[in-house]
Amino acid sequence: MLLELRELSVSYGKAVALANISLHVAEGEFVAVLGPNGAGKSTLLKAISRSEASTGALEFRGESLQGHPAHAVVGKGICHCPEGRRLFPELTVLKNLMLGAYLRRDASAVAADLKVVYSLFPILEERGPQIVSTLSGGQQQMVAIGRALMGKPALLLLDEPSVGIAHRLKIEIFDAIKRIQQSGCAILMAEQDAQSALRVADRVYVLENGHVARSGSSDTLRDDDHIRRIYLGV
User: Could you read off the pLDDT of 26-55 as tens digits, one per residue?
Assistant: First the structure.
């Protein structure tokens, strides 16, 4: 198993954000985590990338990540594209992308991976010298995903990639994310847009109030009455 969580919990003081979460992601699999604001989706991804402390079992390729700092987790093959993109606004598109490869020393492979990013998002090659803060929200999201890919992840963590993006660019971004998975990279994506997530993911976990309320294949949950009523509005 690529990633396995067992009884993972995160608390902020007396407030419990995640309570005994268990989930897994296989090699090359696309797993989505759905849920409303405050359900614990972002906290879950932060716990996996070690930017939030947690208790319970957190294993990547059979090795515990507990106690490892965030930069060490990146070096092991987990790259996190956070909510809100967190770009360096006064740097160029190219410099933002290259910061994703800061731990790497394989220059020729880095150059090859930059070409892969440009093949996924051709507009970024054209906008390479442009200051990233001058891009649209959708284009900035492309930069954020591209920066994470420059770390050469085996597991890509995506936090709300569709937030604040025009519908046309949202479709383009989700199609690119699916192509990333098809290249062999596993994906764990937190998302509120249930319709888009169910279209592209293999399996889904539904978080509600810090607990896993439902889980199953995308096809199964698409026909679940609770999911249809609460998340799909039908």
Answer: 999 999 999 988 899 999 999 999 999 999
